[in-house]
Amino acid sequence: MLNANVKHSFIKVVGEENFEDSKAGRLVYSYDATPNFQSMPDAVVSPRNKQEVAKIVKICNENSIPIVPRGSGTNLCAGTCPTEGGIVLLFKHMNKVIEIDEENLTVTVQPGVITLDMINQVEAKGLFYPPDPSSMKISTIGGNINENSGGLRGLKYGVTRDYVMALEVVLANGDIIRTGGKLAKDVAGYDFTRLFVGSEGTLGIITEATLKLIPMPETKKTMLALYQDIEAAAKSVSKIIANKIIPTTLEFLDQPTLVVVEAHAQIGLPTDVKAVLLIEQDGPPEVVERDMLKMEEICKKEQAISVKVAASDEEAEALRTARRSALSALARLKPTTILEDATVPRSEIAKMVNGINEIAKKYDLNICTFGHAGDGNLHPTCPTDARDHDEMERVEKAFEEIFVKAIELGGTITGEHGVGVMKAPYLELKLGKEGIAAMQAVKNALDPNNIMNPGKVFAKDSRKRVVITK
Amino acid sequence: MLNANVKHSFIKVVGEENFEDSKAGRLVYSYDATPNFQSMPDAVVSPRNKQEVAKIVKICNENSIPIVPRGSGTNLCAGTCPTEGGIVLLFKHMNKVIEIDEENLTVTVQPGVITLDMINQVEAKGLFYPPDPSSMKISTIGGNINENSGGLRGLKYGVTRDYVMALEVVLANGDIIRTGGKLAKDVAGYDFTRLFVGSEGTLGIITEATLKLIPMPETKKTMLALYQDIEAAAKSVSKIIANKIIPTTLEFLDQPTLVVVEAHAQIGLPTDVKAVLLIEQDGPPEVVERDMLKMEEICKKEQAISVKVAASDEEAEALRTARRSALSALARLKPTTILEDATVPRSEIAKMVNGINEIAKKYDLNICTFGHAGDGNLHPTCPTDARDHDEMERVEKAFEEIFVKAIELGGTITGEHGVGVMKAPYLELKLGKEGIAAMQAVKNALDPNNIMNPGKVFAKDSRKRVVITK
Hints:
Two copies of one chain form a homodimer.
Chain A: H1 4-14, E1 19-20, H2 23-27, E2 43-45, H3 50-63, E3 67-70, E4 87-90, E5 97-101, E6 106-109, H4 115-123, E7 127-128, H5 141-147, H6 154-157, E8 164-170, E9 176-180, H7 192-196, E10 205-212, E11 214-215, E12 219-227, H8 230-242, E13 249-254, H9 255-265, E14 275-283, H10 285-301, E15 306-309, H11 313-324, H12 326-331, E16 336-339, H13 349-362, E17 368-372, E18 377-384, H14 389-408, H15 427-446
Parallel strand pairs in A: 2-4, 3-4
Antiparallel strand pairs in A: 1-2, 5-6, 6-10, 7-11, 8-9, 8-10, 12-14, 12-15, 13-14, 13-17, 16-18, 17-18
């Protein structure tokens, strides 16, 4: 609990109406989209501008109060779960698009703006912000930046990191710094812009961001390739890239995922095949046309049993929507859904999918796999029940083996979901003790009192998801 | 001078043949491409592998000996000038292309490989590494990474940072860490890959890098637009982008630069116009054709007095070569050439060029300006004479005003050359005291004994280029 003086200081900064410490009010922010993590904050504070953020941070730094910055809490790594108590810093008021600069192709936003709201505003001007996390209808740009969100278009267009040009950040000592600019080139000092992107709120609080936009592609086409063999699908992915085509989207869904998605979406997806690839290309019409033909040829040569281009925009949109609904469809199966995002080099996808299936069999689990095949970013997903402690133990062991397998294949434990609390115990697999020590040194340098989202990224202990935080 | 024990330790690691401390041997590495900076190292040590690098670093860390990593020393910020003595760590042996991975579109290299050698090898496989610093014939990839080198294709394709996927780095404590991977998506911990890119050797020693490649564009076209008015040229640049065309290259040369380049290259460049734009587009033939026509139209509408597409590859190559030779052509004019790279948002180019010209007039200097107009990265260049102390004082003041002007316009003090020693006194203009303090905290955390290229990035004092280091 906050002491009365501290509470009074917060209220002096943001006003009574933006300070909340009732039990009901705190309960709402005691969890995020991550299953099985819950922990109460001491208060929820909603600043209205960067000056207020700086004042709040100073109070927290002087009193060693943890700060958990939060947009919509859609992350899947318990990154916004207040595991150490302290305050949730809620960006509900700082949710404006500040400027769309059509000459420099940038958009400047406050962190609390909803991703899709921003996208709609820039698209109205013929501009394109490529990162498209599946949660974009409710996620915020601040959250996307803190997690370095990916999405379906990562293969061709990259991830959030590749579109952040400048940041305004409040540091743990209350200093407000600006990084980068509307500049295609800037080497004045270290690349702090990208150090903060994906730092999960552990290094500072982002209060403003300038994002890069690109011209809107002229057209887009969508196709679905069906396979009776997972390896054939994976090989098609590699062959497409080796043929020097970089499609916008190259999504993979295995049969168990397909069955569930079709039951949910009911758009006529085939459920009697072992795997499908959802392939999209965008760009000038001539190029899209040519690439689609070439990819169709490649998929057929690699044993696709059917390749079909969506006949209309509506059909294409239905396919995309179905793919985006994979997680929510899977979440309907069982009370608890454990979704991971182990990622491997593109060339290793078949090995990884086979590896996941073997591990699932070994631990007697139902693991469905879908994901961004083009960038090797897979989402093995296990519908389970947190109350079934025996199964949860097996889930835990299975996912640990999945992480180890990904690392063995040159991959990583998380492609786009972040480390948070959930994957902190596994971080050493990827970085080694030395790598973690170096990152911790940077964390300590910028946040010596460990007030910035403590308990995230770096494991305090080896607690895994089996134990539920009270 | 190194003491005998330390010298013996280095020789034990690399062998007599890779240790050099004769006066002549040290003299060669007492300067780089930066005018007016010279300082003797105590020795030159050439490791053959990462284990040797780690051993050398440990010796240096225990004995507080500065390490200056060096490829070809083509940087323009005195980034490889051993201003604090210590050893030059020369990467002449670690110069191999380790692997070209055609399935994952990556190339893995040692830091000492010559940029163009690597480019030739990947192009032989139909793959493309876009960053093209003007020094690429002799620069090394290690140097490019440490400086985050840019080049002529930055507008469309980005800079070195955008192509580094993974690094192997020896830290100051001798730990060897690996960052990233052959992974389009990876959010396991902080983005150390990009923290090291552009850190100018001040955070660690890069011993291996995996770079992203893309498919080779099918075709390329080049054109030259002539203007009697600098603002018309600048406006054409903005209009091209606002029309949603992102050309590969959008280079600007003012009249004084043109005159010098033509005298040097003799390829029939017009010298009676106020400015030219060298514009290139690459990609599928249909798209290149269409974009070139549209850009021709835009330039004419914006008062270009002539727009001419290069008739042949040879003519295009001659134009590119002429542009690339701008610095060497200007360097022939006077004993000393001061070249800067103040950078502004694209929309501010006309204001910046006019500002430079006013400042040149005020200080009675001849400043020629050329550069990458598409990304706002200008190279105001002053042919002068370091022995003329009066003129050098004026040069110093003029460039300080140029930096201030760039910052005023939302720009930066260096777009692609780096801070090094040269621009360290001006870094505060861009970052503020708070920003520098935060970066220094990170530096101290990773290199507490300050052995990693000390004296670079952060100013020890306000010494500027007027005073020559002995």
